[in-house]
Amino acid sequence: MGHITEYNNKLIKSVYRKISDDINNDTINFVINHDLMFHLTDTRSARFQMYYFRTIANESYFNKTNSFFRDFKSQYSLQGIDNNFLNQLEGRKIEILQAIHNEELVKLYFETFRKAKIKYKNVTKEKDLGSFFAKLVHTFNPEKYCALDNPIKNYLGLGKDSFFIAFIVISQAYREWSDNNKDLIDKIRKGLIIIDKSNKLPNDKITNLKLLDLIFWTKADGSKIITKKVSP
Question: pTM of the predicted model, to two decimals?
Answer without folding.
Answer: 0.91
